[in-house]
Amino acid sequence: MAVLWQPCGEGARILRVLGDSPCPVLPGLVAGRPVTEVGPYCFAAREIELRDGALWPADSTDTHEVTGDFLEEAVLPDSVQVLHSAAFYNCHRLRRVEAGPALESLGSDLFTNCKALRTFALRAAPDAETGLKKLLGAVSADVGVEFLGAPGAKLFYPEYFEWLDENTPAHIFNHSIEGEGYRMRQCFSGGAVDYAAYDATFAQACVGESEEKLCRLALGRLLAPFALGEDARADYEFYLTAHPDGAFGLAIAARDEAALRLLVKLGLPVQQAAAQCAKAGWSAGATILLARPRRAAKRYDFDDL
Asked: Within a 10 A sphere around the Cβ of 19, how many other Cβ atoms?
């Protein structure tokens, strides 16, 4: 892999990535400079403006541009602080973006038409201050978040919609927002996630969100229960217990063995789910569901003789 870049301050701005992998890992250093910015339209399938100072990679044989529908994942170095406008514009197959905790500035139209985007992964502890709030503000569709730093956390933010209604005679516009996903995106204290506030939105989300989305949210919090209070844990467990088909359906679709074990531990009925596993050709999942719990070894004392 090679990059077209230009100096910016003491760092480097990536203008284009060249290579044969749809999942590029951007370098942390270019010519001894830390990579601090991803330039405008960097991964978009369109011409970019080559400003003064743009430098092509030396002695590189890579000519294929990693742009548009070719891009599936992007791993950004910890040093990246700025994502310029439309950096991922029209990347229809982009499904995952991984970054460090240093993101500070995001341009507009960053993920426009990225219909397949499903996950933001952050190499940070779950209680660290990151640029997550700004990333979430750039995506109104369903998106999951994974904190990769120990002990880890998995969050889900449902889609929300916003629009303007015009009061024609007065030419006044009313701003309307629909969907609990917007409220959940505001659950931050400084730059860190406020987990108590996030969990508190679940009750209202149960009113308007789908079973599939609520099961995904509950499973994520229970599988990686960072800062999860006992009341919130009980709410998530109760919801999954009341919606076994949706819960098992998610686990089986993702072939998530940890989720299956969690649902079995909660006492959800397993026969129908085991049949789903068999139908999907997932024998390991069926084995987990149908395995008999081990009995404790019998201990004998003199009264047994």
From this structure: 18
| β-pair type (161-167, 33-38) | unpaired
Q: In what helix (H) or strand (E) does residue 287 lie, and over which residues does it extend?
A: helix 283-290
Above pLDDT 90, what percent of the chain?
A: 82
Length of the chain in terms of residues written: 305
Q: Which of 218, 182, 177, 212 is nearest to 199 (CA)?
A: 218
pLDDT (tens digit per residue) in 4-33: 999 999 999 999 999 999 999 999 999 999
User: What value does the mean pLDDT take over residues 248-262?
Assistant: 96
**Whether pTM exceeds 0.85:** yes
Of residues 142 and 163, the one with the higher pLDDT is 142
181: left (phi over 0), alpha (psi -120 to 50) or beta: alpha
Select from 140, 231, 237 the least CA-distant residue to 183.
140
C-alpha distances in angstroms, 123 versus 10, 94, 146, 263? 23, 19, 9, 28
Q: Which residue has the tokens 């149908």?
A: 290
Amino acid (1-letter code) at residue 112: T
> What phi and psi values does residue 108 have, to the nearest 5 degrees?
-85, 160
